[in-house]
Q: What sequence folds into this?
């Protein structure tokens, strides 16, 4: 069956034919292609068409697909049983490695998704401080737990309101625009003693890539310390992408709690949250804050995650950043030469080329991008074998498997786009 036939069948079995909304490709006025396999920087659809992949499963595949060391580690783990529901060595080795790379995470808990990690971190912050309110930034996405579904980014930004989330729940969610320290200051001035935490993507990746302005993260750190609130860095995207130690290493700010996901699973479902021993020991069975999981610390996922982090230790981050930035700048220049206004936000191995006059520093500015121009660009790139995120407000990711030839092929495709 081809993608069209599979999509028709999927529509009868899953709402919108998908298990996660953006995959339906509605924002680029297209139907999804169904993927059959992937290797390195490439994916192949069920009709055998080849694509250079800049979505990378929305971030996890920073080594490219089927990295031999990761695949082998996963195979070896499966051969020893796929789940025990009891402690295993892999949990310790992965936790030790994460703690070494991200020293603010003295202790941690493994869960099965980024959503679980942020949901648990919020519960812990509330349990630790005995406070209910928290500050979240408009356009930041922290997974789909109820409390976060107020002005969330990514696919949630396209859902009008959030039916199913009682107003009583998001009443505790205080909103501010990204990079707007004054708005956060105002929340603390009004209700500082009730605020459990501020949660932030230290570089935002779900309203397109938006970088923290100078002093923004430092300001959040100071406000939280001053008012006895916890600072949570949601590093589900930035962890092991902005630097081996994540955004906190890159920007030199120490959060109280960190959430991880995506890359630490090496393509398997893993999330993780952690911080100081003092805070983490509020979790059951030591403390009273509850969180559990049938598949938490799954041996196959732990093995794939550890192999990924080990491999990343041999990778040249600055070199990939330099190549990615040069590639992204050339891509933007090509679009400009066709009369498109574009704004490029880029860091490490992530970038967003917004089809709008910049700058883009928050959700309002991100929302101004020309979605029709992006849809035209996306459709013509896909037709030429370039797989980009099916929405103009998402990141493009590169991996250590992308070659200069892959970038050159992509730029050639971009030169042929007609608006
Ligand atoms: C993807 C993402 C999440 C949610 O992770 P899932 O594994 O999809 O549940 C949370 N926070 C950020 C910053 C993300 O990008």
A:
């Amino acid at each position: 069956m081809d993608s069209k036939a599979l999509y028709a069948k999927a529509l009868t079995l899953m709402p919108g034919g998908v298990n996660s909304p953006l995959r339906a490709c509605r924002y680029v006025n297209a139907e999804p292609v169904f993927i059959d396999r992937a290797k390195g920087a490439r994916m192949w659809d069920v009709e055998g068409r080849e694509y250079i992949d800049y979505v990378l499963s929305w971030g996890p595949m920073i080594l490219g697909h089927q990295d031999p060391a990761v695949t082998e580690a996963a195979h070896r783990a499966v051969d020893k049983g796929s789940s025990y529901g009891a402690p295993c060595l892999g949990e310790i080795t992965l936790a030790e490695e994460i703690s070494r790379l991200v020293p603010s995470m003295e202790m941690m808990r493994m869960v099965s998704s980024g959503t679980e990690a942020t949901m648990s971190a919020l519960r812990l912050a509330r349990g630790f401080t005995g406070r209910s309110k928290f500050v979240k930034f408009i356009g930041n996405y922290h997974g789909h737990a109820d409390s976060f579904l107020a002005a969330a980014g990514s696919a949630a930004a396209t859902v009008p309101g959030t039916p199913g989330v009682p107003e009583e729940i998001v009443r505790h969610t205080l909103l501010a625009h990204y990079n707007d320290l004054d708005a956060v200051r105002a929340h603390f001035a009004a209700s500082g003693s009730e605020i459990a935490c501020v949660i932030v993507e230290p570089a935002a990746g779900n309203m397109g890539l938006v970088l923290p302005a100078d002093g923004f993260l430092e300001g959040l750190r100071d406000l939280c310390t001053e008012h006895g609130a916890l600072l949570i860095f949601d590093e589900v995207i930035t962890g092991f992408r902005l630097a081996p130690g994540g955004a906190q290493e890159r920007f030199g700010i120490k959060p109280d709690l960190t959430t991880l996901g995506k890359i630490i699973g090496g393509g398997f479902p893993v999330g993780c949250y952690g911080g100081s021993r003092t805070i983490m020991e509020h979790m059951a069975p030591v403390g009273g804050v509850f969180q559990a999981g049938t598949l938490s610390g799954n041996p196959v996922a732990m093995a794939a995650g550890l192999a990924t982090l080990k491999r990343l230790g041999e990778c040249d981050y600055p070199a990939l950043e330099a190549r990615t930035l040069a590639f992204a700048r050339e891509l933007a220049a090509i679009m400009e030469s066709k009369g498109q206004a574009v704004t490029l936000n880029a860091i490490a191995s992530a970038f967003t080329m917004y089809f709008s006059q910049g700058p883009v520093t928050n959700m309002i500015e991100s929302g101004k991008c020309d979605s029709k121009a992006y849809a035209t660009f996306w459709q013509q790139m896909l037709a030429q074998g370039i797989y980009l995120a099916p929405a103009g407000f998402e990141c493009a990711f590169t991996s250590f498997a992308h070659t200069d030839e892959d970038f050159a092929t992509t730029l050639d495709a971009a030169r042929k786009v007609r608006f």
Notes: The pocket of pyridoxal-5'-phosphate is lined by residues 113-115, 118, 141-143, 201, 205-206, 234, 236-237, 261, 271 (CB under 6 Å). The CA atoms of residues 164 and 245 lie 37 Å apart. The chain has two domains: 3-63+316-415, 68-312. The chain has a mean pLDDT of 96.
